[in-house]
Amino acid sequence: MEQTILSVQNLEKTYHSNQLDSPVLKGLNLDVKQGEFAAVMGPSGSGKTTLLNILSGFLNADGGKVLLDGQDILHAQQEELTQIRQKKLGYVFQDFMLLDSLTTQENVYLPQVIAGKDQKEMMTDTELLFRQFGIRDIVLKYPGQISGGQKQRVAVARALSNHPLLVLADEPTGNLDSRSGEAVMDAFIKAKEEFGATILMVTHDAKAASRTGRVITLKDGEIRSELMKNGSDRSFMEEILHYLGEA
Ligand code: ADP
Ligand code: MG
Question: Whose C-alpha lies nearest to ligand 1, atom 14?
Fold first, then answer.
């Protein structure tokens, strides 16, 4: 039986601005199992980024629990939270967030250096990730010299480099053309299959979502539905599109 890596229980978040309360998450429940690749979908403004930012420890919640491998990240002390962010979580953002003054290889080294990883292990791990993601020939290039799809594969390599318990990705294909987006999705599939990664990805793109095993849809601050993949990517995509069409 697979272990639950992430357990979100009754999560609540309200933004306050101009004396106006906007409840965004209203008691959201969600579990992610080890080795799972799941997608979160939902209309713009439904709270997907808010959810990911809370799971990342970047944003406070108003109520509920977020257990990462049993550890409550909402109530972790600052130092503990820093450790969790550095070693237990990996992040992939829509706009890559690579440092332009570092080579692609150095971008992937950086979080490993910060985590205090052994240098030899760091080189071996990075080399393997670059090889698996088909970006070995760009290791010495700078972000400004490579394509968006390549940048995002570098970002996926970086997210995996400290062997996190969970990778969080917010619209990772949102700034890419469909071909580059597919190459990035191939990298996520490899992350799962070759590196055993557990991934929670927010996406608008039904095709990207169809590559995962489960699609969770949000609406009005709650989980609206969960669709499980039973057949091919193709048939799952049709199921997702059909579902969204009726939503
Ligand atoms: P999604 O990623 O699904 O598009 P978000 O989580 O970004 O949704 O936003 C959910 C809702 O919360 C939106 O209505 C948005 O306007 C609002 N919101 C997001 N961030 C803030 C903020 N910092 N202050 C006030 N309202 C916010
Ligand atoms: Mg968003």
Answer: 45
pTM of the model as a whole: 0.96
Q: How far is the CA of 48 from the centre of ligand 2 (A)?
A: 5
| Whole-number Cα distances in Å, 246 to 46, 114, 237, 238 | 17, 47, 14, 12
Ligand 1 atom nearest 17 alpha carbon: 25
Using one digit for the tens of pLDDT, what is the confidence trace for 50-65? 999 999 999 999 999 9
Separation CA 181–CA 173 (nearest Å): 5
Q: Alpha carbon of 218 to those of 62, 204, 240, 243: distances in Å?
A: 18, 12, 13, 13
SS3 247: coil
Phi then psi dihedrals of residue 104, to 5 deg = -60, -40
What's the rounded mean pLDDT across residues 12-39?
96
Ligand 2 centre and the CA of 171: distance in Å? 7
